[in-house]
Amino acid sequence: MELTQAFPRSAGVPEGILSRWIAAFRKAGERDAGGADSVATAAESELAGRRASETGVSLFSLRGISKHFDGGVQALDDISLDIREGEIFGIIGRSGAGKSTLLRTLNQLERPSAGSIEFDGRDLLAVDAAELRKVRRRIGMIFQHFNLLSSRTVAGNIALPLELAGVAPARIAVRVAELLELVGLTEQRDRYPNQISGGQKQRVGIARALATEPRVLLCDEATSALDPETTQSILALLADINRRLGLTIVLITHQLQRTKPTPHRAAVLHAARLPDQAAV
């Protein structure tokens, strides 16, 4: 696809960063021969992303986002971008570029030092704590290290956010069964985290994040602790969820060869700044 620059190039940012990252994305995709099913899923996911791009409905709108930490560390510097409903959006960059910090501003686990963030038309920086808790139920998140409770079964971990939200037990049982089927863990429902593989743990994390029926799923390097084969299965599952549910997915990574399927659009962070945003 033709690359489209969405924001002005920042002073002091090396030329050609976006082109190099995108070329690496495409090369990684070409190396993955895949089967008929994976090709079909990728094509369907790309079509969904194209439709999302055509509608142009922004789920997140960030303007002028900066984040400073103690000691003079600037993690984000004047970031502006839009994430559209229904797309897979990639945040790409090397370690220390500010990817995780940017992702965590989307659900306010990190509060920016300056700028504005709108989610579905609402100013996230203006809501109170009670309202923010409600908003966060619409923003699912999965983590690199799974964060499962060892004392709970697979089903119990998935049920936890519904229990905390006060959902009726009968409804929880139905929802958990649906999610177990979605992520392919029906037979593992009564096992504990120490009895399942790393890939299965991440599937539990995905199901748990989907329990409250969010509008968007944030993925914080969710496959970096997995082997390549398991990584591909998890990414294929995310693409399938995007296609079937129309769920917006924000995916961050610094390992391009592990990002398959390719995001529909990507923002490339370099030294806390956003030189480019483009279709992939």
Characterise the protein shown here.
It is a single chain. This protein has helices at 17-31, 36-55, 99-105, 129-136, 154-164, 169-183, 198-210, 228-245; strands at 58-69, 73-84, 88-92, 114-119, 122-123, 139-142, 216-220, 248-253, 265-270, 273-279. The protein has 280 residues and is an alpha/beta fold. The strands form two sheets. It has a six-stranded mixed sheet, with helices on both faces. The protein starts with 16 loop residues before the first helix and ends with a strand. The model is unreliable at 1-22 and 24-43 (pLDDT under 50).
Largest sheet: 6 strands, mixed
Rg, Cα atoms, Å: 19 Å
Low-confidence segments: 1-22, 24-43
The ordered string of helix (H) and strand (E) elements is HHEEEHEEHEHHHEHEEE
Structural class: alpha/beta
Give the terminus-to-terminus CA distance.
Answer: 6 Å
Mean pLDDT across every amino acid position: 81
Spatial order of strands in the largest sheet: 6-7-8-3-9-10
In helices, the fraction of residues equals: 25-40%
Instruction: Tally the beta strands.
Output: 10
Strand content: 15-25%
> What global shape is seen?
globular
Assembly category: single chain
Total DSSP helices = 8
Please describe the topology of this protein.
Layout: H1 17-31, H2 36-55, E1 58-69, E2 73-84, E3 88-92, H3 99-105, E4 114-119, E5 122-123, H4 129-136, E6 139-142, H5 154-164, H6 169-183, H7 198-210, E7 216-220, H8 228-245, E8 248-253, E9 265-270, E10 273-279
Parallel strand pairs: 3-8, 3-9, 6-7, 7-8
Antiparallel strand pairs: 1-2, 1-4, 4-5, 9-10
